[in-house]
Design a protein that fits this description.
Elements: H1 11-40, H2 49-68
Amino acid sequence: MHENHPFEVTEEMRQAMDSARRQGLQADLRTLAARIHAEAEGRYDSEPSDWQAGVEWTLLYIENIASGLTEGRS
């Protein structure tokens, strides 16, 4: 125990806090990807094709990061 904290933080509590933090970040990343997708929709026709590829790559990259936050974790 620490003098500023009247209780002991167990390993189980640390794991639960880490899991909640990861899930929150995962949700934030997926929200970001959805907003990027919504903003980009309909703009593909007026932009160069490399712009579309860049948006699609970015969305996949964000999803891969979001998925990796909870893979193999309970």
